[in-house]
Design brief:
The protein is mostly beta strands. The protein has one helix and eight strands; from the N terminus they run H-E-E-E-E-E-E-E-E. Bound molecules: zinc ion. Zinc ion binds at residues 32, 34-35, 37, 46, 48-49, 51.
Amino acid sequence: MTEANFPLPVLEGHSADFYGYCKQGELRFQRCTDCQAWRHVPRELCAECGSWSWEWARSSGKGEVFTFTVVGRALHPAFAEAVPYAATVVELEEGVRLLSKVTDVPPDELEIGMKVEVDFEVASDEISLPVFRRASASSD
Ligand SMILES: [Zn+2]
């Protein structure tokens, strides 16, 4: 196991729940139990119907590159060796978007609309980060 040298999420509240599922290898988002709308980042109230009722529902982990930007100059010393890298927003099949990265595609080969699927990168004993890799051809 490698201990990440970059800043990690603080585990509290809904964030602790979200990363707790990631640690188990499950990508879960909040889903309204009244109107079934998915949402991320976590919040108490459904933006679609105003309901306070929700559950942690499991995502298929499949989606596509919604947008990305290639970072050429690290804005934090811990990322100095990672540049250039593509900060990537993935839109999951459920409609929610997650800021992440695609680990097996170099920034200059990344394309909007590229099919990807979730993977988990062990960052510490407590935290596994949801990342993405190019979807296998047979997964559609
Ligand atoms: Zn709702």
